[in-house]
Amino acid sequence: MHFNPYGGSGAQVAADLATLSLRADVGAAEVLAVARTHAMALTEVTEDEAVRILAWGRRLWEVFGAPPGRRVDLVNDLLATAACRPYISRHDGRPPHLHYSSEGAGRVERVYGYTAGGLAHLVCEEPDRLGLCAREGCGVAYVDTSRNGRRRYCSTRCGTRVAVAEHRARQASA
Question: Which one of 42, 125, 131, 167 is at 20 to 30 Å from 48 when CA atoms are compared?
Answer without folding.
Answer: 131
